[in-house]
Amino acid sequence: MLKQNNKLRTFKTLNYHKAIRIPLLQFIIPLFLFTQISVKAQVNDGRLPLIIDTDTANEVDDLYAIVRAIAEPKFNILGITSAQFHTSPLATDSSVYESQRINERILKLMGQNAIPLPLGSNVPINNSTEPASSPASNFIVDMAHKLPAGQKLNVVVLGSCTNVASAILEDPSIIPQLKVHYLGFWHNVETNTYNKKEFNTGNDPKAVEILLNTEGLDLTVMTATTSQHLVFSKAEVDGNLKNRGGVSDYLINRWETYERWWTKEDPEKRSWIMWDVAIIEALARPELSKTETFLTPTENTQRLINIHTEIEVENMKTDFWQSLKKI
């Protein structure tokens, strides 16, 4: 009798699973197809598809750049990835997590919780053939493959190049689908000479070399030489953001509490160079920046890249503040 009951129970169990299997498949398959359609719609909605890769916790200007980018209706921000900045004397041994936390806070304050925030690598690339893989580099690869034919994924690098260079090493087939906008190194327009002794470049020199040496990679650089001219005063920041609450007060607080370690000038922090804002503004308003084509440094693979050589500072500042009125 016990054996018969066990057989009966087994028969009923098998039939139960058969009964629910078809409804489950009917639910899962449409969900999968819906997800695929949603992703395609997300990357093909007519706006500029981009990923912002940023060492947000390193400084002040990254925060202002992120907020400006989110306020731009022309941008389709597919994700914001966090970057390491291990050479800063203020950085902990987990600098990428510091950037990640601030990215999360900004999106929460702006009510933009749907934007993905993949975590980047906490260490630079070790050699030119081995990626420092992370959720961020994987995300860049995935998004590049999801773009429709003929469309490029814009990756705006505001800090170290670790994540995008790793993505290229992980899957070189994405190179034709990428357009990298990098903020870094110094450049003399008249002599076409480069100085790589610059903070972003120094946080992952090997990653920068990968970008410069990768043939077929669409690379545009906002140099420190050009972006250094975009300067905000504390007075104008206060006038536009003070006591507005939310992310506006968060930006004010970041300016006031961050300890500027690289200079003893302007101890009261009356002004700040907005390096990262310059590259976002140039992408949002191309008419406010002049770009020219140059050969890469002599020590790199000789190929042509684009470099921002001039920016319209006052117009960029006006556009920035007008854009932030909408948030």
CATH architecture descriptor of the largest domain: Alpha-Beta Complex
Strand arrangement in the largest pleated sheet = 2-1-3-4-7-11-10
* Chain oligomer state: single chain
Shape: globular
How many domains make up the 3D coordinates? 2
CATH topology of the largest domain: Inosine-uridine Nucleoside N-ribohydrolase, Chain A
Number of helices: 12
The description of the largest β-sheet is: 7 strands, mixed
Q: What is the CATH superfamily classification of the largest domain?
A: Ribonucleoside hydrolase-like
Low-confidence stretches: 1-25, 27-38
How far is the first residue's CA from the last residue's CA?
A: 73 Å
Q: What class do helices, strands and sheet pairing give? A: alpha/beta
Radius of gyration: 23 Å
List key phrases describing it.
327 residues; alpha/beta; Inosine-uridine Nucleoside N-ribohydrolase, Chain A; seven-stranded mixed beta sheet; two-stranded antiparallel sheet; 12 helices; 46% helix
Topology:
Blueprint: H1 2-43, E1 48-54, H2 61-71, E2 75-82, H3 95-110, H4 135-146, E3 153-157, H5 162-170, E4 178-183, E5 186-188, E6 193-195, H6 199-202, H7 205-213, E7 218-222, H8 224-227, E8 231-233, H9 234-241, H10 246-257, E9 271-273, H11 275-284, E10 289-295, E11 304-311, H12 313-324
Parallel strand pairs: 1-2, 1-3, 3-4, 4-7, 7-11
Antiparallel strand pairs: 5-6, 8-9, 10-11
Helix pairs in contact: 2-11, 4-5, 5-7, 9-10
